Amino acid sequence: MTIEQQLATELSIKPAQVVATLALLDQGATLPFIARYRKEQTGALDDTQLRQLHERLGQLRELNSRRDAILGRLREYNQLTPELERALVDADSRARLEDLYLPYRPKRRNKAQEAREAGLEPLAQAVLQNGQLPTAKLAQYLNPEAGFADTDAVAEGVRQIVLEVLSEDAELIGTLRQRLWQQGEFQVRAARGKADPESKFRDYFDYAEPVARVPSHRALAVLRGVAEGTLKAGLHLPDTLAGWPEEQMAKRQHLRPSQLDAWMQQTLQQGWQKKLRPSLETELIKRLREQADAAAIEVFARNLNDLLLAAPAGAKATMGLDPGLRTGTKVAVVDATGKLLDYTTIYPHAPQKQWDQSLHALTKLAQRHGVELIAVGNGTASRETEQLAQAVCSALPQQDLHAVLVNEAGASVYSASALAAAEFPDLDVTIRGAVSIARRLQDPLAELVKIDPQSIGVGQYQHDVDQTRLGESLDGVIEQCVNHVGVDVNTASAALLSHVAGLNRTTADNLVAWRDEHGALRNRRQLLKVPRLGPKAFEQCAGFLRIRDGEEPLDNTAVHPESYPLAQAVAATCGLQLQTLLQQPEQLKQVDPARLEAQGYGGYTVRDVLAELEKPGRDPRPEFRSVQYTAGVETLKDLQPGMALEGVVTNVTHFGAFVDIGVHQDGLVHISQLADRFVSDPHTIVSSGQIVQVRVLEVDAARKRIALTMKSNTDAAPARAAATAATDRRSSAKPAAPTPVKGSLADKLKAAGLGSGRR
């Protein structure tokens, strides 16, 4: 089966779609460009399908590369038989390849090799054929010079050869691996001296579960406990399969149980317990980790997607407040474009307690610069600072001010970065943080792309999973989000531009430099004047870059320049100038797509262009909205069972959803409490950033645990549901939950598992 055929089968798409996509990728096309502008060739594969194809393509090409390397080495040493070559060519996984190559892999000198060199191979072969040790012949193989001075040493040498033969049998390894994965138990216990009843891993001190069914969050929790030395974990077959591995080992040598003597039975037991089981255990726990990583990374990617696509508050003058106590609250005012206008530091809280002076200072700043929004960072003293911001809003009713809590995770990383230093070389890092908070409210996407997503915090266990895979996945999410929304080429930062399809950091920097020297771009064709931005890069990026109020109206839409003739044809069909059509989109009702297709335009392209002309330059992100926390409910002490509250989903996991209800500690809606019906996947009910109505089931103030429900009827066994929620919550080993966030970032800007403490 070719790579193209395998990809088509695995992804349930047509081989022609795979062939076309691979051709585009090999020509240097980017995934966002292919997804949006090459639907005719790919059969309208969407971004998710393309990313799956691209990822799997890399895996299969890596597999083929390893296969070629093994075949080459075996040919070099004249070890390749026709049967082995067929088996290697047919191998469909890395594990199968390595199983087949294992007997031929260069290895260090071992006891089996020493025994062979001492001439014990014939004895070992006799044992494998007969299932018994020929004790009468052992004395004939004594070799004191080689270390085999007595019959016990000879017998042990024979055993080492037999064990090596068994442990390098590819078919046997495959059979045992499959059974151990399908029916093996993942058994966990406390490490010696680590059974602390207060440990966060206490639920795993006596835990067992079929390995193939261990949820990702539970696997990562256990593996974290193992890494910290608190837990011990292993894989074991159930008692019902006792002796089964040894039977399979004998079967591979065509031996019946009745043929085996006690010595051979002991050898087979050693082969399983000391050779095969430990190596398979290591391999399968690695597989468990990889699967858990993949599931967790998928959740992290969803959370980051919601974070980046949070509703922007828009181009409004905004005041950013970075709350603090002893060192004061840092204040920065930016204009509608994010340009810094003013900054200061106030001390409204203890120990200075300059509340009135701080209120006066903020009021004057808000008046001077026409501030419309106040963004309050959600770190230390955030709720107290929010009260101050609300006081400013009350003092200036004519300005229609609104105060919004904003997640500040990662702001300190940005403020200390080279990027921030280049933009604000003379500004204190803490003031830079206030600027970032203000800009996040205006446009989360434009500001958050300046920060390494792994510094933002995208979920629990993010530092436990494979960092390379996590980074690649999150980078892909950023690319997808940036190109989904589109970028204003004349105002975007180099950090934002660098994620546009076809651009990189060098071309993005060059574009900003060209813009600074020559002024705003007036049309997309001017992109070709940017150094190192050639025709191929232009093809990839042009459709995602917007030019507002430029010479060409279509430059402010997602219509690609190659489709401008189609857009002009649409306008001609309506009997209007293109500019007029964009102002009167209702005229598009008279357009017959079939006629345009008859002129040679692709059906997918026609539909996309018509949709864009109907709503030119539309922002696909949701409308700005803030969550309304219940007044007077600010701490766990304010909560009571049965209380109805509004909150925002901060993290969706496999066992439920965490919800911020404004008390500095997220509550958990267990999967069993998400709906009145059975729920198998929480993502089908809620998503990060969604505003939801919940009721309090139980509050454990000592352990800072809040059990919530979204069911319409909460009278049914609330205590049992709360207990179940608490158990799974402990299983997640979830760190302290984030502090609350409002506004656009209450909708989505506080995606799953963001750190709760000061940045």
TrEMBL record:
GO molecular function terms listed in the Swiss-Prot or TrEMBL record: mRNA binding; structural constituent of ribosome
InterPro entries for the chain = HHH_9 (IPR041692), NA-bd_OB-fold (IPR012340), Ribos_protein_bS1-like (IPR050437), RNaseH-like_sf (IPR012337), RuvA_2-like (IPR010994), S1_domain (IPR003029), S1_Tex (IPR044146), Tex-like_central_region (IPR055179)
S1 motif domain boundaries: 642-711
Low complexity composition-biased segments: 717-726
Taken from the record, one Pfam family name reads HHH_9
Q: Which domain of life is it from?
A: Bacteria
List this protein's GO terms for biological process: nucleobase-containing compound metabolic process; translation
Gene Ontology cellular component list: cytoplasm
Q: Which Gene3D superfamilies match?
A: Nucleic acid-binding proteins, RuvA domain 2-like, Tex N-terminal region-like, Tex RuvX-like domain-like, YqgF/RNase H-like domain
Region entry Disordered, spans? 717-759
PROSITE patterns, from UniProt? Answer: S1
What name appears for this protein in its UniProt entry? S1 motif domain-containing protein
Q: Which organism does this record belong to?
A: Marinobacterium halophilum
